[in-house]
Predict the 3D structure of the following.
Amino acid sequence: MKQAIQITENMYWVGVHDFNCRHFHGNMFPIEDGTTYNAYLIIDKEITVIDTVEAEFMDIMLERIRSVIGKRKVDNIIIQHAEPDHSGGFLRFMQEYPNAVPYASNAGAQIMLKQYFKDYAYHKVKTLDEINTGSYTLTFIEMPLIHWPDNMMTYVKEAHVLFSNDAFGQHIAGYELYDDKYTLNKCLEKAKEYYANIVMPYGDRVKKKLQDITELNLEIDMIAPSHGIIWRTYINELLEAYMDYATMKPENKVVIVYESIWRHTQDMAEALAEGIGQGGVAVRVYKESETSSALIMSELLNAKALLVGSGCYNNEIASNISGFLTKLSTCHIKNKKALGFGSYGWFRNTTAQINERLQACGFELLSDQLLAQNYTPSQDDLSALEALGQEIANSIKNEAE
Ligand SMILES: Cc1cc2nc3c(=O)[nH]c(=O)nc-3n(C[C@H](O)[C@H](O)[C@H](O)COP(=O)(O)O)c2cc1C
Ligand SMILES: [Fe+2]
Ligand SMILES: [Fe+2]
């Protein structure tokens, strides 16, 4: 029998674990050890549920709700986000609790109708609208495009709890629901990875929303997101880290991402890395096809520079590197430099194309050298790349923070 887990007085976690999830949101975000879809139950004169879970797990969520309220009925259902990982169980929920009043943002109500067709007379709420459930006041704070047009948070002022939906999520799937059951480092690493893979394109909005929240002067003892653990001990560190993520605050680190069939581009990557490493700057080197895209995005978020390499195949950039560049083009890159490189046989344009695409993504080019290598790099070519790596390291170290 599945049980709810109490998170504070009168409030319960009624979410589910998806232990086998390895690809979050299709192929967008490979994860290693599962996730959770968090939903919450607030017991008061009126009973409120915040979000549902993916449709296939809905029986579990209902069992957790019943473990607290038995045959009592739910009065309010808050749809903080219409994406199916949080709304997929909604139809089933309404069968179980047909008199529950659904609340959503204006965009949320529209998306629910487009996805589930039936109009449940959604009560549309805006930022700072409130509902009172007896002794608790639920205040809504819209956060459009973090990460769909409809996302919103719900703040309970009497309990100092902020239900933050997709913001501040991470993929930690356990029964220890609180941040302090894990190290600060682990929690922030996971939050960063989540941010880099799901939220990065919306950095400007995140920054603005963080400022709004600060201005609202909310007392927050607990941040309860819709994926992963609940924050209660590391809240200050989390908010500070989120501002760094939102502004892509760089560290002295270079990320090299490449694809290579006959090792020529790989040898170039490794020579550049050697020079950067000898120059005293952190460097990460990833063959794209062999590396989790989640790791690459996470390392890139706080890197100062990116080097992208590809061999030339059928007169084109390798398709996975092209896909990677397409992903970068959505990220509104700020404060980062980049350079392309690669080996070709009889069509020299690939490196120049990579450079063009990097500039279109918002990167400033690190150098005006065109690192286009004809077939195998010689020892002299590799030494020149090492020297360039050292130059890159020096320029990065000398840049004002
Ligand atoms: C499947 C395949 C297709 C290729 N097509 C082209 C091409 O259209 N134009 C070109 O200049 N070189 C082409 N080449 C040659 C490679 O670009 C060249 O061998 C380069 O050194 C490969 O670098 P790598 O070892 O990093 O993969 C092709 C190589 C392969 C394996
Ligand atoms: Fe979402
Ligand atoms: Fe989500």
About this structure: The chain has twelve helices and 24 strands. Residues 23 and 150 are 23 Å apart (CA to CA).
